[in-house]
């Protein structure tokens, strides 16, 4: 289990998260929902070690990793796909995959990335920045396949993409989950996220307002209250 417990965190003097507890069991899909500015990205940053909490703890499979650096969590199987893609636009697609592979066999990593997203196979020599938005997101997501993580944190990975690409990305996420990878989904396509999710956490102004299973949520009320029109 990846477990945030009683987390308080923020930036400088600004406290964003207060007493947030988020358990992510192995092989589960967790949807983390909330309005703009509720603290979803901040929660993922704490979960991957990018942001040290002011108080509270972060445990991974029973080991206390509070305050440890992101590479320590990455090595132990936590993969963070940040908002805004996080690829290297001036490197080729192949070299981006090699960076994701972080020292593992590049050929094997490329094979795995291409098996996840076949279109990348036709673009290996191209600069990543020249790919379409959807292809760049696929490249960013392929890291979740290449490094075989146990937990993948996904921050708005469908943002700004055409519906057909969004569908392809959700199919990929479904396959990842089927293979036993735990997912934490921050997602504007709430209905799609809830279809995959085993558990839902709802943040409001940095506090948890709901924790439970998708069937316990009144979806219509949720959309109206927090999410706008993207369902
Ligand atoms: N680097 C930062 N420095 C200062 N404040 C920040 C920083 N990043 C985020 N914040 C503030 O923290 C609060 C929570 O932001 P966060 O990005 O975690 O929310 P979110 O739920 O992911 O929202 P969104 O859906 O808009 O991405 C916001 O009020 C935001 O302005």
UniProtKB/TrEMBL annotation:
Keywords: Amino-acid transport, ATP-binding, Nucleotide-binding, Transport. InterPro entries: AAA+_ATPase (IPR003593), ABC_transporter-like_ATP-bd (IPR003439), ABC_transporter-like_CS (IPR017871), BCAA_Transport_ATP-bd_LivF (IPR052156), P-loop_NTPase (IPR027417). GO terms for molecular function: ATP binding; ATP hydrolysis activity; branched-chain amino acid transmembrane transporter activity. It comes from the Bacteria. Transmembrane segments: none annotated. Residues 2-230 form the ABC transporter domain. The keyword Magnesium does not apply. One of its GO terms (biological process) is L-amino acid transport. Belongs to the ABC transporter superfamily. This is ABC transporter ATP-binding protein. The lineage of its organism: Bacteria, Bacillati, Actinomycetota, Actinomycetes, Pseudonocardiales.
């Amino acid at each position: 289990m990846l477990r945030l417990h009683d987390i308080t965190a923020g930036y400088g003097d600004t406290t964003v998260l207060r007493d947030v507890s988020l358990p992510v069991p192995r092989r589960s899909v967790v949807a983390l929902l909330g309005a703009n500015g509720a603290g979803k990205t901040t929660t993922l940053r704490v979960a991957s070690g990018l942001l040290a909490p002011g108080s509270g703890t972060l445990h991974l499979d029973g080991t206390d990793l509070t305050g440890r650096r992101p590479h320590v969590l990455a090595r132990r199987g936590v993969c963070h796909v940040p908002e805004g893609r996080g690829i290297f636009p001036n490197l080729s697609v192949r070299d981006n995959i090699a960076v994701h592979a972080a020292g593992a066999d590049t050929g094997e990593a490329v094979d795995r990335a291409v098996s996840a997203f076949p279109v990348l196979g036709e673009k290996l020599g191209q600069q990543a920045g020249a790919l379409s938005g959807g292809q760049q997101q696929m490249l960013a997501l392929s890291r979740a396949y290449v490094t075989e993580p146990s937990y993948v944190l996904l921050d708005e990975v469908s943002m700004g993409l055409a519906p057909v690409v969004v569908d392809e990305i959700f199919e990929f996420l479904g396959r990842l989950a089927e293979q036993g990878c735990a997912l934490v989904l921050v997602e504007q396509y709430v209905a799609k996220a809830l279809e995959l999710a085993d558990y839902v956490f709802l943040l409001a102004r940095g506090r948890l307002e709901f924790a439970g299973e998708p069937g316990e949520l009144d979806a219509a009320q949720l959309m109206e209250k927090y999410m706008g029109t993207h369902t």
